[in-house]
Design a protein that fits this description.
This protein is α+β, with helices and mostly antiparallel strands. The chain has 13 helices and 17 strands.
Length: about 600
Amino acid sequence: MRMSFRWKITLSFTLLVAVAFGLLGAYLHVSVGLHTTEQVREGLLAEARLIAKTLPEPPWEPSRELQRVVKELDDAAAARVTLIARDGTVVADSRHAPGTMDYHGNRPERVEAVERGWGSATHYSKTLGVDMLYVAVAMPGEAGVGTTRGKAVIRLAMPLTAVGMASARLRTVLGGAFLVAMVAAWLVSHKLAGSLTEPVQRLVRVARRVGAGDLEARTEGITGVELAMLAEVFNNTVERLAGLVAASEKERRYYATILEQMTDAVVVVDEQRRVQFVNRSFGDMFGVEVERAAGQLPEAVSLNYELSNLLARAVGQGTAQRHQIRLLHPEPRTLIAVAAPLVGDGEAVMGAVGLLHDVTDMEKADEVRRDFVSNASHELRTPTAGIKALAEALQGGALEDAEKRPEFVDRIIETVERLGDILDDMLTLTRVERGQELLRPEWVEVVGAFDRALSQIGAAATADGVAVSSQFEDGDRVHADPDSLQTVLINLLDNAVKYTAAGGEVVLSGSKAPGGYEVAVSDTGIGIPAEDLDRIFERFYRADKSRDRAAGGTGLGLAIVKHIAEAHGGEVAVDSAPGRGSTFRVFFPDGSQT
């Protein structure tokens, strides 16, 4: 059982007082006994000397008269009176018959009295059956001084019960005083201990509040030099601790914000490979709840053993590890993962931190770039091969053929124009891929933009037997770069006319939409199969393989439309089915969103 400091002081002080009173009582008990005995002895000695002067001179002989005298002396002195003859026999005794008493010549008090005039001794009296204090005085004027048989002696005796009674009275007084002293000592020590421990208890209470996280707690009103100094040191320590905690919390929030805002996924594990922290990007990347990741193994959180093995090697080998990870859940991704060990004091590895960078889009971009180069090479090789073949034919003799020569030259010119169209579209695509950098959006009147686009495509539509019209509201405006808007309209109209049979219809329409303006081109053409809808905006992709080059397209028109729309912050969509025609929609946001 633990005892408080206050009770320890109280009990210690009280015990000290009890021990002191105990020692004092023992000392007083002995002292009072000795003092009482000494007082009784001196009284008996004085009375014995007075009685010696009143008695007849020795030698004494036993007689009734002498027995009567010693009884009278007993009554007067309140002490037993015994007369011992020169030979040591009892001549008279005030409380017992002399003839029945033992020989007293060798009694110590009688021997001492004979030798030096008086003597004293304490011993048990067989005659009376109690402890007695004896005082013997040699009768004055007796011969034979210095011998044990030369003097008559008068002896007075008194029971030691008086000494016992005095000691009993002293014990009673001391007992009462002891109880009073103990109560007083308890009260005083308890109050004194309280005055000493109360400031300490206040310090303890404040320390507990600090330990519970209340760094605003302070000690106040503590007096006493030492305790006041302790309180000041404590307050200064708490102030410094609060500063360190605030700085640490600020730093923690700082790094936590950085980790939470990072697009790369971050995971931290301890030396047992238990997850200690994952950021929001990790949760989004692996489809897990951040709050439930702590304490689990990496493979249980990520469902990916490659990441778990990478972190395990970083912890086990104490070196940075790097690996490319293929992620299948919740969606296919390619990640570049780097795991570095966390080193604590003494160079001991206390865990590892993993950083995962998503390179899926980069790989897709590389794949698109490779496909573009491949497709561009293929698309450019076809017209250049045609030009080469026609030139070789002319060189081989067709130049001399007046009938074939103009046809060959016309075909060379058409092929060169097609080659130029491909190069122009590639340059346009390169320009629009730079996004808003080259855009100059402004409010454009729809009526003017539609009329310019229809006038440019009108001749080709008439030649193919396709009717072209427009629909919009008076006063409609669209916020877009004028030249880019014309590129979008012409590409969509040109594409619709090429894939619509004679007698078909193409409609260019515009309408207001929430947050912007929507342009749509609808046709009654051949339509697009469902499996091709997701790819028609790719470079050089053609849904109708039978009419790809025969229609004269470059395969880049829809890709250009998509990039222009995205550069404006808008989007493009298509609705089509084989035999039902197609509708392409392009949304341009208003000026507040560009």
